[in-house]
Write a structure and sequence with these properties.
about 475 residues; alpha+beta; eight-stranded mixed sheet; five-stranded mixed beta barrel; about 30% helix; RNA-binding
RNA sequence: UCCCCUGUAGCUCAAUUGGUAGAGCGAGCGGCUGUUAACCGCUAGGUUGCUGGUUCGAGUCCAGCCGGGGGAGCCA
């Protein structure tokens, strides 16, 4: 039996016979001899209204017992709606119950308002709500927009490894990957755990970044990007951190920090524009129910230029602002959240790309500027979220790179293949990391990052 | 990891100086209505997060543990 999706049905003209399959959102009975069923199947923001006349064979035995969450199939005809609120509806000629809700009294996703905190505890049922259905569709749309953007610009999508045996991917606590018996591991002569006996013959972890790997492909294919899961074992407990999240990391050869910043700006504008066009229904929902003004905000961002602001100038602006900060502003220290928020939310009221940070607060691979005090790093700050992108031009000069590795007391030997890139046909190149969930957060106005990923992983939180 | 707040019905929340548990929504039944946050009536539903302590008596006070939220740090 052929059937169509709710979004297709809503776009059709009255008069056509249709079969629909989905879940009951609500049921309202009219003693005039009919029931109204709002049916959703996840294909769009709006449910479709099914009108069930009382002469259906199973009207009293089944239709009137339908509750929120029941799965049904509906045969009927698409007709012009006699009521307000929708233009078309389905006049049912048959309704088949596919799956009942066992106990409507305790169904967790009942037809009432629920807090996001509560729905997080029933993450397997929350995609049935209009908010989480919308989040899922927007997540999908943004993913494809990212791929489309890079494809149009002739970037290649590179699958960097999830498991890494490099202990040199940069700062950040990592999750260990091991097949050793945790209760009784093999010991080395010093009494420590002997990782030579482990699966990979050495300590292995889940990746915290695909950057170092993707740089190798950048220095061969010119324009590449990764888009995959990333793992941080930090004990972070905030509305914008996850232990498992998805990160987009482009890397471009023969490019400097200015090219990098332009790429970041172009990319954000492209995906926002694409999203507003392709998911207008869901974006209207977020604009109305989650964050009033959201669409106007995004439109404004698409149309305005992102500000480029060197760190040193930002320090000046902050000092002269007259604003009282909890933490002092001093050249050489990292900016606090309150400082970043002030710049992007209060002072400039638009995305700000901060550049050229003091070298001592940034990673070893960032290119040293001519002043020998700063590096070609950048953070893209957006209102409401703060840092959404972090990136840099990479140090392509082997002697400078080695000096930085030594200064930071890092094990040079372990970077042998990374250093090789600087020995064989080295080129200026740059890239950045975009936290995908932060992008979804910003695009939807959702306040907590745990509500924009299907099954959030965070400290003490890996249910489902 | 640190600071602050918090945990009572399926959900959202009340409960006076410590005195023995209540409402709305949801659910069930009935009424009314081309309904759509429907409306009206009735009914059911609780070991007040867990463990211990103070007290004649603890949802309320104290300690520890567990969970949730907001902020900070780490970052994306």
């Amino acid at each position: 039996m052929s059937w169509i999706r709710v979004d297709q049905a809503l776009a059709k003209s009255p008069g056509e016979p249709v079969t629909l399959k989905g879940w009951v959102r609500t049921r309202r009975d009219s003693k005039a001899g009919l029931s109204f069923i709002n049916l959703h199947d996840g294909t769009c923001q709006d449910p479709i209204q099914v009108v069930a006349p009382s002469d259906l064979a199973n009207y009293e035995s089944e239709v009137q017992k339908l509750t929120t969450g029941c799965a049904i199939e509906v045969d009927g005809e698409l007709v012009e709606s006699k009521g307000k609120g929708q233009s078309v509806e389905v006049k049912a000629s048959a309704i088949r119950v596919v799956g009942w809700v066992e106990d409507p009294d305790t169904y967790p996703a009942s037809a009432k308002r629920h807090t996001f905190e509560y729905l997080r505890e029933v993450a397997h049922l929350r995609p049935r709500t209009n908010t989480f259905g919308a989040v899922a569709r927007v997540r999908h749309a943004l993913s494809l927009a990212v791929h489309r953007f890079f494809d149009e610009r002739e970037f290649y999508y590179v699958h960097t490894p999830i498991i890494t045996a490099n202990d040199c991917e940069g700062a950040g606590q990592m999750f260990r990957v091991s097949t050793l018996d945790a209760m009784n591991p093999p010991r080395n002569e010093a009494g420590g755990v002997d990782f030579n006996e482990d699966f990979f013959g050495k300590e292995a972890h889940l990746t915290v970044s695909g950057q170092l790997s993707v740089e190798t492909y950048c220095c061969a294919l010119s324009r590449v990007y990764t888009f995959g899961p990333t793992f941080r074992a930090e004990n972070s407990n905030t509305s914008r951190h996850l232990s498992e999240f998805w990160m987009i990391e482009p890397e471009i050869a023969f490019a400097d920090l200015a090219d990098n910043a332009q790429l970041a700006e172009d990319m954000l504008k492209f995906v926002f524009k694409d999203l507003l066009e392709r998911r207008a229904d869901d974006m209207a929902f977020f604009d109305k129910r989650i964050q009033p003004g959201l669409i106007e905000n995004l439109t404004h961002i698409i149309e305005s230029d992102f500000l480029r602001l060197p760190y040193t100038e930002a320090i000046d602006v902050l000092k002269k602002s007259g604003k009282k900060f909890e933490f002092p502003v001093e050249w050489g220290t990292d900016l606090q959240s309150e400082h970043e928020r002030f710049l992007t939310e209060e002072h400039y009221k638009r995305p700000v790309i901060l550049t050229d940070y003091p070298k001592d607060i940034k990673a070893f691979y960032m290119r040293l500027n001519d002043d020998e005090k700063t590096v070609a790093a950048m953070d893209v700050l957006v209102p409401g979220i703060g840092e959404i992108i972090g990136g840099s031009q990479r140090e392509e000069r082997l002697d400078v790179l080695d000096r930085r590795i030594d200064e930071m007391g890092l094990p040079k030997d372990e970077y042998w293949w990374y250093r090789d890139l600087r020995r064989y046909g080295t080129v200026p190149h740059a890239g950045f990391g975009l936290g995908f969930e932060r992008l979804v957060q910003f695009s939807t106005g959702m306040g907590n990052i745990r509500d924009v990923i299907p099954f959030p992983r965070a400290p003490k939180q890996a249910e489902f």
